[in-house]
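Revision sheet: structure tokens.
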Amino acid sequence: MQKRPLYFEIFTTALGGLLLEISYTRIFSFKVFYYFTYVILGMGLLGIGAGGIAIATSERLRRIDPEKLISVCAFAGGASVLVGYLIIGPTQMNIAESIHSPVEILKLLMVMLLLTSSFFAVGLIISTILSVQPDNASRLYGADLLGAALGCTLAVPLIWWLTPPRIIILSGLILALGGLRLAARISKPLLIAGVVTSVVLAIPVVVPDLLDDPVVAQGKSYEEFRRDKLVRFTKWNPVFRIDVMDHPFFPGKEFILFHDGQPGSGMRRFNGDFAQFHHLEKDSRSIPFNVLEKEPKVLIIGAAGGHEIVSSLYFKASHVTGVELNPVTYSLLTDVYADVTGHLPKHPKVTHLNGDGRWFLKQSQDKYDLIWFVAPDSYAAMNAATAGAFVLSESYLYTVEMIRQSLSHLTDKGIICTQFGELAYATKPNRTTRYLSTARAAFKDHGIPNFEKHVMVSSASGFPPFLESVVLLGKQEFSPEQIETLKAQTAKVKGGAVRYVPGMSADESPVTQTILVPEGQLDEWYKSQPYELDPVRDDAPFFWHFARFKDAMTAPLPVKGIIDFEDSIAEQVTLGFFFVVMLLAGVFLLLPLFTIRSVWKKLPHKGSALLYFAALGLGFMFLEIALIQKLTLLLGYPTYALSVTLFAILVASGIGSLLTAKYAHKRNRALFTILGILAVIVVISQAALPTLIDTFVGSALPVRVTVAVLIIVPIGLCLGAFMPIGLSTIGRTTDHSREYVAWAWAVNGFCSVIASILATILAMVIGFKMLMLVALGVYVVGVLALTRIPEGSGRSAEA
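Predicted:
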């Protein structure tokens, strides 16, 4: 039995693996689309699980000296990371066309296999370490979680400092360095191989610009601008990558800001002379200013490149506050392009802030005549989500709670203006309709009756292929003069059309229907619609999720060359990948039955072990994802939510794992005690979290981080205890503990893969509150299953 402590090796492996996973989510958000994050998570956990299966089923691997096997895997894993990126980076993919093109299918499979190969080495190392020292499982699992926690913590600052391509290679370097200590004990040639591998990996990490940018998918506009040499500025960051492009028709005068390879907003050269913006008189941006009284006080949520700040100043705003989520976009106006944009943040009537809109409103005491949500038609919300897989923070801008919050910050005659780009207004104005249904619910909750008298909607020609929709929500009922003003101004706007004003009779359009359908008939009307158009709340803030999953399962595949992301594409990809992962999980879990049949028959209590470790994989991910989402509102910035939540839960879980050595000798009592404490914490958190968030959201960041950590730590301490208790239990039941422990680790990994996708699907359907309760139920099932295994070292197989 291996006796030398292997804490360093498991720590560095977990650290490298987490950095690799997080950095690839950023690469593929830029390279492909936001939902490819699921593939990264899935392939990571699939590779780790496959490594566990390999140890469980391969007698040849188990005969290798564990120290030598760990060293070889560390060096091979590091090398595979470098080779993988050098192939994946320049490979151009077209996911939407993969259903039509065999070439695209092969490219997708190649990328998935390359991703899996690096994580396979991680799985081999972790499974080997845990299986050769099962009696030390609590400390080893603790070291594993602490390494992963450090990876989560370092990922955010490293994205700023090194960029995701270099972090990928750094993760390979960390894997390789983790094998040097053992290699030095084994043989000089192996050590030399490890040193050479480490040096080769270190070169692209320390030398900037040695690695080429990843090539984006076909259909993303970035490639055309890059090919035409229009790229003027590039910066990776944890929210999304920003590229500043020369406008192809107005070079040097106007710029396009790209968010993860797609156009997101604009930025214009400004010298202080507002006469150059006379065209705004016939722009849709003029509509709210004509409806308002003169010199309004304006708040812009999503200030981006400052175009709306300039527009507000042009229309004589008394003061403009611009709030921008992305720190790089914010810095364009304050630093990089300050001279070009006329130093807008220094204008005496302008306050320019970096932060999340929800956070800003929560901590602000000011009231505004206009709160302006500007044209989120670039899907920037989903691009931002890929900073941490499930942090869909920008969707919180379009929930019932956000609209109520905005109403409380309006002056008596103030209005909320929200603009959306609609792909097909005549047939499916989904964004406008869903926002109106959400606003209607918010007005009702806020105690403002007669919603139909507080709303006006118009449309105008937008950036092709979008038709721009303008929604005005008034705190007071709109007056006849305001209605006539909107009609007159809309007529001046290019392509302008009035879609709804108070007094207009109902037609068949979903826009007017969602405003005028009687309250008692609303639920039935929502159910009758072909898309999800019901109100969006904080508990399930998936504003952009229009296609129902049951409809996505039966919807026809997209026509070649035509992609409409609101017509089930993302849902179909999610469901398709989920079913593929389930198939792979089933194959790999059944594999031991065929390859080690003689040993498999001797392993006792397989059914109970399967349920237990599957429950841990599902339950942990469900709670982790729900906590990340819940705490996004508190921390006010998606990157903080991701890093703080993952760090706190992994550190707490690591500590919880270490503490089990002190009390786990009475296993069943320990299990039920921990489960009971977890249940109490989860139930209390359901009631306390909204109050805590509302109380502390306006506090300084260190205070909010402290509150978040205090919320997470008790849950993490409980979750960390379950894995080592289970591993120790099965390790004592058989002489084949290496095979059993490795297989259990693989079960946990595969179910974590499934949970990473299933959690989001469930949250869209039942919300995060119910997801946490489901996670608790899953843990109950797992604990009951493990208690069926005798606490002693019984070896009789389960029937």
